[in-house]
Write a structure and sequence with these properties.
The structure is a single chain. The chain is α/β, with parallel strands linked by helices and about 220 residues long. The chain contains 8 helices and 5 strands; from the N terminus they run βαβαβαβαβαααα. The protein has a 5-stranded parallel beta sheet with strand order 2-1-3-4-5, with helices on both faces. α1 packs across α6 and α6 packs antiparallel against α7. It is globular and about 60 Å long. Bound molecules: flavin mononucleotide. Flavin mononucleotide (FMN) binds next to α1.
Length: about 220
């Protein structure tokens, strides 16, 4: 019997090897590979040409597990992800799929609270069901920028709970179960205290304003 296959689609616009979504998705993929699954990775911004898009759709069609790992953009899925999902659903409706594929979504956001990701995760669940996947569940993560686009192991202790949650998700997927609630509970533990996170965000914001010469205009209210 051939090995089970997992396909990861990275929804970030960042170049390969630099994004937080890729770091999260790659960690999960590595655990699934340890469990014997064959892996393949696509980046949504590299699947715009018809032949690349076709390759993605065919890989997903033959996969046992489809993982979408994406950032949150403006409280929802990035445009390229939405477009890709719509086109994938149309493709799967036109060419009925014989293979049973499960789908998992990982959505990370910049704000420290993972609640911002819940609508996007719901959208992923609706897409999965409408496009004929078996929905295996989704995981949201707040404060994603703390990962800095690095492999989770390299980020160190701060990502311990994130890795713990993804380990539980991998175990469940390898056993053909849905992602357990405990996995989300692990990802819900903040990587750094949210007060510290917003203070560091403020400092970054002020530094950028100083560099761009707009520091004194930050509190302007041009529209009254
Ligand atoms: C265009 C854009 C819109 C974003 N909108 C949100 C948002 O609505 N809420 C939020 O918490 N983070 C938002 N973010 C932050 C990203 O979700 C966050 O930085 C994420 O970790 C980026 O992941 P990536 O490295 O995989 O691209 C936004 C980022 C960009 C570039």
């Amino acid at each position: 019997m051939s090995a089970l296959r997992v396909v990861l689609l990275v929804g970030s616009a960042r170049p390969p090897g630099t994004g937080n979504s890729e770091a999260l998705g790659s960690y999960l993929l590595a655990r699934l590979a340890e469990g014997g699954m064959g892996t393949e990775v696509f980046h949504v911004h590299r699947c715009q040409r018809p032949e690349k898009e076709r390759a993605l759709f065919e890989a997903v069609g033959g996969a046992d597990v489809f993982v979408l790992s994406t950032p949150l953009y403006v409280d929802a899925l990035p445009y390229l992800v939405t477009r890709c999902c719509e086109r994938m659903a149309a493709h799967r409706a036109a060419e009925p799929q014989e293979h049973r594929s499960r789908m998992v979504a990982l959505v990370n956001c910049g704000f420290p609270e993972l609640e911002h990701t819940l609508t996007a995760l719901d959208i992923c669940g609706v897409f999965a069901r409408q496009a004929g996947f078996v929905w295996a569940g989704g995981l949201g993560l707040g404060g994603g920028e703390a990962i800095g686009g690095k492999p989770l192991e390299e980020v160190g202790g701060m990502t311990r709970h994130v890795r713990g949650g993804l380990d539980l998700a991998a175990e469940a997927l390898l056993a053909d179960r849905v992602i357990p609630e405990e996995a989300q509970a692990q990802l819900a533990r903040p990587m750094i205290p949210s007060r510290l996170y917003t203070t560091l965000g403020d400092i970054g914001w002020l530094r950028t304003a100083r560099k761009k010469g707009t520091l004194r205009r930050l509190w302007d209210r041009p529209l009254g």
